Each structure stands twice: as structure tokens, then as C-alpha cells.
Amino acid sequence: MGRKWNNIKEKKASKDANTSRIYAKFGLEIYVAAKKELPDPESNAALRFVLERAKTYNVPKAIIDRAIEKAKGSSDETYEELRYEGFGPNGAMLIVDALTNNVNRTVATVRSAFNKNGGSMGVSGSVAYMFDEAAVIGIEGKTSDEVLELLMEADVDVRDIVEEDEAVIVYADPGEFQAVQDAFKQAGVTDFTVAEITMLPQSEIELPEEAVATFEKLIDALEDLEDVQQVYHNVSLDE
Which residues form the TACO1/YebC-like N-terminal domain (predicted)? Predict the structure, then answer.
């Protein structure tokens, strides 16, 4: 399916200031998920999903607990989930997901990041049709054949199972995310190298060498924005 998920995560986690930035974004996402329903992962599927993702990024328990306690309190902060679409150099396509309490601020900063880094904002639907939503779940300690067997025994349908480095990555429909995780847990697997619902490009492009630095600068500028939670793209990079 194209992406080296473990390599991408390692690169993100190793970028000095990125660790605190990632933790801050998870803190907000956990707060928003906990605020939607009861702040209890047993009864709140959205919160349970975010917490599973947070574990794969080693988000400290103190940050998780603080976000959930804030949701339990009297805070009346409300956030909107927004999606922007745009273009980078040489036909690159990007999707930007944000959580914000100020829509005008967010659209202005996202547009500025595009404009200052060789890109441009697109209208809704201009890019998303070239991506597919997918659940991506990775584990270590088993072969792809073993994973296929246990998923078949659990009667879980998936799109693909691939071995990447020392991990096995399962790609499935978003609605199968919980079923895949449950199948693994029933088989004694509780640690996941990746646990995401993401947007995968239907095809990837390669940029000429002179455009790669510009594109990476655009990605960094978008990911550095406080309101931006995720950035997806269709560029094949040497991660």
C-alpha cells in the first residue's frame, strides 16, 4: 500500500521539538473526544481510538490524564473538526485535518503556510477524491502468514497484510479498525507499532530533486501549526 509506517513514525518522533508538539496535539484530540461523550474509553469509542493511537506515540500518562480531567471539568471550550485540501509543487496533493476554536485563524494560517511554501489551497473535493480512508494497524512478533491466519479465524476482512521491516502492517476498511485490534488482543497482542485511521493516496508521485526540499518545508510548516492535527499527501519520499 505504499507507506513505510514505522519509518515515518520514527522520523516524526526524532525531530527534537516535534515530541512536545505531538503531545500537545494529542492532548487536544483527547480532550475533544472525551468532551463529545462520557470521558470513559469503555463507553466512548472515539476516546478509546485516540488513546490507542496515543500509546503508539508514547504519549505520557500525565498528558492523557490531564486532558481527560479537563473534559470532566467545567471547561466550555468547543472545537470544530475541519479539513482543507491543497496542492504543493509539481502536482503534489495534500489533505490537512485541523481542530480549532477559531475557524478564521485556522484557515488564514493554513492558507499562509501553503502560499509561503510553494503551494496553494484548493476547494473542497479538489484533492480528497484521490485518497481512500483506511485503518492501518501494525504489530511485531508475528509473520504475515500468522496474522492472516488469526484474522481469518476471527472472521475479520482486511484489504492487505504486508511485512515492513520487523513489523506486520494490516490495512483494512475504517469500520474494521476495532475488529482487527480485538482479534490481535484475543491472540495476546496488546502493543501496536501503529494504530491509525488515515487517508492513503490511490497513487503516489515522485518529485524532482529540486522540488523535494520545498515540499518538505511545506509539510513542516503545516504540521507546525497549532490547529493542524494531521497532514496527508501523495508524494513518495525517502523516509
Answer: 3-73
Are 130 and 95 spatial neighbours (Cβ–Cβ below 8 Å)?
A: no
Per residue in 159-168, pLDDT tens? Answer: 999 998 788 9
Cα(20)–Cα(211) distance, rounded to whole angstroms?
Answer: 29
> Would you state the pLDDT for residue 19?
83
Identify whether 239 is part of a domain. no
Where does the pLDDT of residue 106 fall: very low under 50, low under 70, confident under 90, or very high at 90 and above? very high
Q: Residue 83: count other Cβ atoms within 10 Å of its Cβ.
A: 14
> For residue 192, what is the domain's CATH number?
3.30.70.980
- Of all residues in the chain, what percent carry a pLDDT higher than 90? 76
Chain centroid to Cα 62, Å, comes to: 21
Element holding 134 (H helix, E strand): strand 131-140
Give CA–CA dist 118/48, Å, rounded: 38
Q: Which of 32, 48, 72 is the last residue of a domain?
A: 72
Give first-to-last CA distance, the chain, whole Å.
15
Q: Is the distance from CB of 99 to CB of 79 less than 8 angstroms? A: yes
- Mean pLDDT computed over 133-161: 93
pLDDT for the residue numbered 16: 46
pTM of the model: 0.89
14 and 62 belong to one structural domain = yes
Pairing verdict, β 131-140 and 194-201: antiparallel
